[in-house]
Model the fold of this input.
Amino acid sequence: MVLRLQKEAEVKPYERMSLEELKEAEDDFDEADRKAIEMYRQQRLQEWKCLQRRQKYGELREISGEQYVKEVTNAPEDVWVIIHLYRSSIPVCLLVNEHLSHLARKFPEAKFVKAAVNSCIQRYHDRCLPTILVYKSGEIKARFIGVAECGGAYLKVEELEWKLAEVGAIESDLEENPKKDIINMMTLSMQNISVHENMDTKSSDVLKPRIT
Done:
């Protein structure tokens, strides 16, 4: 309790004021305080802008091919943009849209958009869908093309979150790859198959008649 009161006593009065209150009270401070106030005001302004930007997104928006350059390529340089090119007749594309909608709400500082592939690229092969492109500063930083690269037909939202976090598009609180256990099981299974194959080979060699 004492420590808290001491800390509160050390806080400058302007640190408890809003930007409007600071402007009104400018004449009550000396030159040193005015400089500190200006620095504090700029800091608060930056915090406010960051908060506004974080609240600007927060949903998976539909865009057309005509909006691609404006919404994706020319997005603010400090904003990560995740775009999903999809076809509504492909079930896994609908699954990816569902997961991206969830992630857009969870990570409102990133910009999540989707576009029907026909509005962007003509005669795009179905085997390349879903296609997820990750942009920053107008450049493609990562791409996931096709069912396998996007995570498979039974993709979970945590797996997609991990993929996007790995390339830096979002800051996830996941501590390890959700597919790690599956990968380990697949590796173990392959090792067991290899062991059995070796044993079968050795057994067949033993059973072979010796020709002298």
Remarks:
- Residues 1-11, 183-189 have pLDDT under 50 and may be disordered.
- Residues 151 and 160 are 7 Å apart (CA to CA).
- Strands lie at 60-62, 80-86, 111-116, 131-136, 139-145.
